[in-house]
Specification:
Two copies of one chain form a homodimer.
Chain A: H1 11-16, H2 19-25, E1 30-34, E2 41-48, E3 55-61, E4 64-65, E5 69-73, H3 78-92, E6 99-103, E7 108-112, E8 118-119, H4 120-125, H5 133-146, H6 155-165, H7 169-180, H8 197-204, H9 207-222, E9 226-228, E10 237-239, E11 244-246, E12 253-255, H10 257-278, H11 282-308, H12 323-354, H13 360-363, H14 368-388, H15 396-403
Antiparallel strand pairs in A: 1-2, 2-3, 3-7, 4-5, 6-7, 8-10, 9-12, 10-11
Helix pairs in contact in A: 5-11, 10-11, 10-12, 10-14, 12-14
Chain lengths: ~400, ~400
């Protein structure tokens, strides 16, 4: 249907016009609350008045930045890419909320309500462990990255995937500017943190660092390997003790695999930094370290298993590769992917300290001295990740960098 | 207009229906000859009966492989990409024949007739020197590669370029299969050359070589850097003592820059091999060596000049890079591009010895002993290019490899 902005008044009529939604609720009337606290979109919780266990999330993009208002226009086509990517990922992984309805023209998606789950970032701030997380997210990453790459897809299917996301350039530009550029120079959008001015200046004048960031930004802009979530931080993941769900994929595009794995590693590292400076819960720090190592090791195992189940592909024609050639190439491929992941993780960590968007784990620290300590530790780790990414041999190497 | 196959009978009516063509000929009747000797398309030469200096080339793709016939279907959409790429390159370089008319629906392009020029491969077989070639082709390469890359284009324009070519997957697959795969394994399409069986077997079992070829093929499939010609060999270039023109760009797509520079270097090297085994014209060998070195050096200079004229871009925001950062990154960028060019050149050289499509410079050698010598020398050079590409420091390094 043609685009119309939804609100708590007109949303019931809209939802009841959709047969799949009518069937889900099996009710005459709904209770609707606006629950979004994000910057970009409106998010509603719609629940059956007759049966409060029946609830759905309705997310709609508006043609402006929600947190500012109509005077800050932002194309609502971002929802098109969120819809397309979530629907693609849903065919590849069970770690995506159930999608009940989507409409690109309406910029709307209707999804499962995850009422018994928590945003992972908030859970980690509260020192909650998620014992199944490494297993779940490594399955998600292996399936979504492998099965949208030219290790798996035909040329025609890969080209169709590139086509479907290539015009998400408005959001790709946000990443290019705010992850890879502005934080490393004087820029009006950077956070005002006078206590970090000395280190911000040092970074802005570090030739080696800035050349390596250009290298990584160029890879981000030119390496069309797989369909990425594009913003896979712990605020885009809902968890509890038994489940893991990934959502908020409006930054999706066909890019370098290491950008998704790196984003996840970066956010685990920033939680580690936050706990390291604030409390002496050594066991929680150890759990984060183990999680980082497990995520990578399990991801590698699962990715290679999928690869071994795919004896021929657009890349490797039947009869081209002996077992020895395949194994040697796989080893090199995963090694290279690890190095790029750590490079991207470094950019992600540094930008969260200096740039426009921080992470609650660190910016939310109320004691300013402790917060500055966290900022400086994170910046130092991020810098080492970027400068050393081509020397990383195994995932444990980054734990050593974190602890120096 | 809707698609209709042209022939010497109906082509005059078609051409006179186009006002730009009527104006060009300014004549009542035309003489038309079918002159194509390629495998894929029909090529006609249309000349004014009143003024034989007025001639145009009409090239049309048919929905099958011309050299086999209707029983071998091949999508005529290849002409769509030839039209789009030549028209794009024509806005960026003067080394493209003048285009008088194009029609994607008719799969037809009408171009300047280069009657006073010769296919460069044929000229080089005859030991003709082209003193302006290095200067011309380096200008063509620097302009087309730089100005279709994210060093120059906005995100939106780059995305539009990717979109316009991403569906040329049928021809990209031909390159993937016949440049990077089939020649290095047992494959029914490979040339039947029993005298090379020992070296073909050795290559098919060389793990190091085959892993490096997979690396390069993966770059070809996933590195969306710039709009490439896609098949820039000396048979796609018309030359004489004063001009250089590039055509036949149906393999165009947004891919790794080094694939175009590498294709050109590969074909200069194969001409060198051909002369090296056949005659003792040391001066011509030296001219080829100097041309290879000049092409790279002039290309580098011109590419960097264009870059320095572009103080800000999607990659490098205004204020991000000091002169020192920019210079260090440019140096690294060109170094990396040289290495990838040599890797791609190695694949191109080897496939022309073992694969379905040879080059006349070598397959055309009538003395079978000399031809085998050329094949073996070319295979050895190609192998070293592939195995050593990450160790290449400067273009002169490949001349050393050729002479060992």
């Amino acid at each position: 249907m043609p685009y119309k902005i939804l609100n708590t008044k007109n949303i019931e009529e809209y939802l009841f016009s959709l047969s799949a939604i009518r069937e889900f609720f099996n009710s005459q009337s709904l209770e609707v609350k606006e629950i979004g606290d994000g910057n970009l979109n409106f998010v509603f919780l719609a629940s059956s008045k007759a049966d409060s266990t029946k609830s759905l999330i309705v997310k709609q993009a508006v043609p402006y930045l929600r947190c500012v208002g109509e005077e800050y226009p932002l194309s609502r086509e971002r929802m098109t890419y969120e819809i397309r990517s979530l629907e693609t990922f849903a065919t590849l992984s069970e770690h995506i909320p159930t999608i009940y309805h989507s409409d690109e023209a309406m910029s709307v998606i209707v999804m499962e309500y995850l009422g018994e789950h928590i945003i992972m970032r908030k859970g980690m701030i509260e020192s909650t462990r998620y014992p199944l997380f490494a297993s779940h997210i490594s399955t998600y990453l292996a399936n979504t990255l492998f099965k949208t790459s030219s290790l798996y897809l035909s040329n025609v299917d890969k080209a169709a995937l590139v086509s479907a996301f290539v015009d998400n350039s408005e959001l790709c530009k946000l990443t290019q500017d705010f992850v890879f550029s502005a934080p490393f120079m004087t820029h009006e959008t950077n956070a005002e943190l006078p206590e970090l001015q000395d280190v911000a200046d040092k970074i802005a004048n570090d030739t080696e660092l800035k050349v390596k960031i250009l290298e990584l930004k160029y890879k981000f802009m030119n390496q069309s390997e797989a369909l990425l979530h594009g913003d896979l931080h712990t605020g885009s993941i809902m968890v509890n003790q038994s489940d893991t769900y990934v959502f908020d994929s409006e930054f999706a595009f066909v890019g370098p695999m290491g950008f998704d794995t790196g984003a996840l590693i970066a956010n685990l590292v920033m939680s580690w930094v936050s706990h390291h400076v604030q409390d002496s819960n050594v066991e929680y720090l150890m759990w984060i370290e183990e999680t980082i190592v497990s995520v990578w090791q399990l991801f590698t195992e699962k990715f290679i298993t999928l690869w071994n189940e795919t004896p021929q592909s657009a890349l490797i024609l039947k009869g081209y590769a002996s077992a020895e050639v395949l194994q040697a190439y796989q080893k090199e491929f995963m090694h290279n992917l690890l190095q790029e992941s750590i490079g991207f993780a470094g950019c992600k960590i540094m930008r969260r300290q200096l740039g426009i968007a921080g992470v609650e784990d660190i910016r939310g620290i109320s004691n300013v001295v402790t917060r500055e300590k966290a900022n400086r530790l994170a910046l130092n780790i991020g810098e080492q990740f970027i400068k050393e990414y081509k020397n990383i041999e195994k995932i444990e190497d980054i734990i050593k960098i974190m602890k120096v």
